[in-house]
Amino acid sequence: MTHYDLAIIGSGSGNTLISPAWDDRKVVLVEGGTFGGTCLNVGCIPTKMYVYPAQQASAPAEAFRLGVDLTLDGVRWRDIRDRIFTRIDAISSGGRDYRADELENVTLIEEYVRLTGEKSFETPSGDVITADQLVIAAGSRAVLPEIPGIALPQVHTSDTVMRLDELPRRLLIVGGGYVSAEFAHVFGAFGTDVTIAVRSGGMLRHLDGTVSEAFTRQAAHQWDLRLDTDVTQIVANDDGSVTARLNGPAGPTEIEVDVVLMAVGRTPNTDRIGAADAGLDLHDDGRLAVDEYQRVLRHGEPVEGLWALGDVSSAHQLKHVANHEANVVAHNLLHPDALRASDHRFVPAAVFSHPQAASVGMTEEEALAHAEASGTLIVTAVQHYGSTAYGWAMEDTQGFAKLIAEQSTGRILGAHILGHEASMIIQPVIQAMSFGLDAHTMARGQYWIHPALTEVVENALLSLRTG
Ligand SMILES: Cc1cc2nc3c(=O)[nH]c(=O)nc-3n(C[C@H](O)[C@H](O)[C@H](O)COP(=O)(O)OP(=O)(O)OC[C@H]3O[C@@H](n4cnc5c(N)ncnc54)[C@H](O)[C@@H]3O)c2cc1C
Ligand SMILES: NC(=O)c1ccc[n+]([C@@H]2O[C@H](COP(=O)([O-])OP(=O)(O)OC[C@H]3O[C@@H](n4cnc5c(N)ncnc54)[C@H](O)[C@@H]3O)[C@@H](O)[C@H]2O)c1
């Protein structure tokens, strides 16, 4: 048995906790998978490194209506793949070597461990580790539904699809959320025939209804979108392709593809670390229960010195949330008498698809429920990109920003943007909400660069009938 001052399970955002403040204390970092976790190796970073060239590959279609004739001569999939992973793999292995070899006070264990108590765990090779403080930052993993044929080598998740040797000619994506929307854009722009099977009636259904409906419409123009459709079986064919059996509104049908991407959500890794056996509290979806200081709960009470952060405990499976919670835990580990709380009031998110979608705060549906419960009124404004000068320059006919505010105070409750660089132009609204600026002050209290695309947000603010 070895005892440490601090033990961390998971090298994603968990890795950032090891600051110089721990230099004279014993720390163990445990990583059973690839060093650096999901975002670096199989998540945010490589996906966006694919999204950017996908945008370039989409340029001919976009430019044509502006009077610019471009042709796409080809997409060198292996070159793109190797450029991305040469860079990422080096960062991962550099980070691993730094933790393994260069810090005398830090030990790196490269095995999947299981809790044996509140602040103890064991490795498959039989070592038992105890710690004064333990941080569980074990993340989440892609869900694989129990469909016959799910284990075929042609069936991938986001973990493996980015490393394919060849760009598939035909791809079936199962699911209608983030991963589906982003990979449909990437593979579709590169020339793959993309079919998407969504078991519900729309894509991105976690977003505001107006955005989800508009995205679904645009998705149906770009990809073969099958709504209200289940995949019931996947069967291997002799030529290396697979046949997926679908059940949709028109009854059973079949589709032949080269690769299937399962994109049906992610589940927290609490089962794999044995959190329930250790007596820790779990939410219904399997997340660890934590309080506002990121302390893990047992029988509803925080366990002293036991912390969790990121996907393993968060309702938001987002890297900026995992990083924020890691900052909070980093402080709280060292300042037990002056704990900081996490701030989950205005968590933004963006889907890097075509078009992009970005959101923060309440959807209109949630705002209406809030208004009813609080006896207030809400106002909404929808501003189209095409109504601003930059939108004219782009000849944009689809993009829009939808803002929702409290009528009496002008307090902004939510923002939902669909279109070019939505993830960037939403940032001033996130700032206004976080710092409590009302819609009018925000619109009139600063210059807005003319004729930048941010004028969409300015005009939406001015259109809100508040006060
Ligand atoms: C395809 C994809 C794209 C994404 N894109 C974005 C994006 O654009 N923006 C965004 O904000 N978020 C994005 N995300 C989500 C983001 O990647 C995650 O929210 C974030 O990486 C979670 O960080 P974490 O530190 O909680 O967990 P992770 O980074 O997953 O780290 C957990 C680590 O713990 C290890 N581990 C688990 N169990 C054990 C055990 N028992 N013993 C030892 N080690 C263990 C795992 O191997 C893993 O490396 C994306 C996710 C995916 C899958
Ligand atoms: N840009 C980003 O920030 C980004 C990008 C990718 C992933 N992520 C994170 O990763 C998480 C996982 O992404 P995701 O797209 O896998 O999940 P998701 O929750 O976004 O979407 C899952 C989809 O699968 C469907 N589904 C669920 N179970 C199903 C089943 N058994 N059969 C068929 N369909 C089923 C759901 O209805 C939904 O359409 C996201 O929730 C997000 O937090 C973020």
From TrEMBL:
Origin superkingdom: Bacteria
Record-annotated Pyridine nucleotide-disulphide oxidoreductase dimerisation domain positions: 347-460
GO MF assignments: mycothione reductase [NAD(P)H] activity
Cofactor(s) needed by this chain: FAD
Domain FAD/NAD(P)-binding positions: 4-325
Keywords: Disulfide bond, FAD, Flavoprotein, NAD, Oxidoreductase, Redox-active center
InterPro entries membership: Class-I_Pyr_Nuc-Dis_Oxidored, FAD/NAD-bd_sf, FAD/NAD-binding_dom, FAD/NAD-linked_Rdtase_dimer_sf, Pyr_nuc-diS_OxRdtase, Pyr_nucl-diS_OxRdtase_dimer, Pyr_OxRdtase_I_AS
One Pfam assignment: Pyr_redox_dim
Entry EC no(s): 1.8.1.15
NCBIfam families membership: PRK07846.1 (NF005884)
Family assignment from sequence similarity: Belongs to the class-I pyridine nucleotide-disulfide oxidoreductase family.
Name the record gives this protein: Mycothione reductase
Organism: Arthrobacter burdickii
